[in-house]
Amino acid sequence: MTGTPVRLDLSSPTRGPRGKPPQHFVDLTPEERIAAVTGLGEKPFRAKQLATHYFTHLSSDPSTMTDLSKASRDKLAESLFPPLLTNARTLTADGGTTVKTLWHLFDGAKVETVLMRYKNRSTLCISSQVGCGLACGFCATGKMGLTRNLSTAEIVEQVREAARALGAGEIPGGPARLTNVVFMGMGEPLANYKAIMGTVRTLVAPTPDGFGMSARNITVSTVGMVPAMLKLADEGIPVTLALSLHAPDDELRSELVPVNTRWDVDEAIDAAYHYFEVTGRRVSIEYALIRDINDHAWRADLLGEKLNARGKGWVHCNPIPLNPVAGSKWTASDPGVEDEFVARLRAHGIPTTIRDTRGSEIDGACGQLAAEEDE
Fold first, then answer.
1. N or C: more exposed end of the chain, with fewer CB within 10 A?
2. What EC number(s) does its UniProt record assign (predicted)?
């Protein structure tokens, strides 16, 4: 198979509406929040009260803000907490502990989240763009094209809604905290770098100015946007970096992941290793196993050799049985082939764990629900 070079414009949406979300409290720095409330005729300390309601109590509903007068809270909520997400559809699996939600945005655009509750943690997979412009052939979101980037507040609202549902005991198992966030939903996170970093800073900021999460529990995924990977290494926030590789050879990867024609396999792996060198954080290599396409034993050997060529102990590999997209020619590898692929990687000394594929019965791969609604 040979890949055809693709010219990619990563700077702007490729199609669809280009609505700009209304400014939200989350889009403002703590200092800007003070300026916003005083500009509305309120005392500066109201900004901290609002932050406490949003980040600690997980509420933007003015009726819950009983420490403010009704007139003040209605005015502040109307100006600073415009509705950004509307729950359009919810599907559950695994006894209700996996929840996939289709959200309508202010302009009618659609994004998805997947909340997965485990015994000792709760993980939310969030979206960073409406669609995606990178056109990976096996990806439901890639088939949609890119409509627009999400704002920081639109991304953070996905997190708050999940944290609120967990805290309120709406997910089976009783009240719980959201412990992990992964940028592995719709979109290429590093193509929306400014909003992604605004979100990360909000997630890790101590309460009441943010959610107070550990950077180690936040994973940012990329298909290999090398300049942004290098920039992320210098941010000083040690999130986990996940590189979606899917093939160790340029010929196949350029077909599966067209951005490989701009930054090839070795450049992407070098950038991932640089991230490890700068941050000390082990990098995850994501690898969707596709039957008879990229699941050959020799490709596992080549991947192991390439990763070890940079050093030892810097990487962890997550093979992922492909969640098939309706109408796609590709499907998941046979279990025996999957086992052999994993064994080959481990033989090279690469720590390898098959990724949990929760939610397959509810179209768990992000983009499938939004695409279905558009049909």
1. C
2. 2.1.1.192
Tokens of 129: 């763009």
- Annotation-wise, does 328 bind a ligand? no
Is 149 annotated to bind ligand? no
Same domain, 46 and 65: yes
Q: pLDDT tens-digit profile of 145-159? A: 888 999 999 999 999
Catalytic residue among 305, 317, 366, 375: 366
Is 125 known to be catalytic?
no
Domain containing 193 equals: 85-374
pLDDT digits (tens, 9 = 90+) for 237-252: 999 999 999 999 999 9
* Angstrom distance (rounded) from CA 278 to CA 238: 9
Take residue 301 and report the two structure tokens written for it. Answer: 């050997």
| Residue 286 lies inside a defined structural domain of this protein | yes
Secondary structure letter of residue 329 according to DSSP: S
Does residue 20 fall inside a structural domain? no
Please tell me whether 317 is known to bind a ligand: no
On whether both 51 and 174 belong to a single domain, the answer is no
pLDDT given at position 12? 34
d(CA 68, CA 64): 9
pLDDT at 28 over 90: yes
Domain match, 124 and 204 both: yes
The arithmetic mean of pLDDT across residues 114-123, rounded, is 96
Q: Which entry of 42, 112, 161, 286 is annotated as an active-site residue?
A: 112
CB atoms within 10 A of CB 206: 10
Residue 203, annotated as binding a ligand: no
Q: Is there a catalytic annotation at residue 112?
A: yes
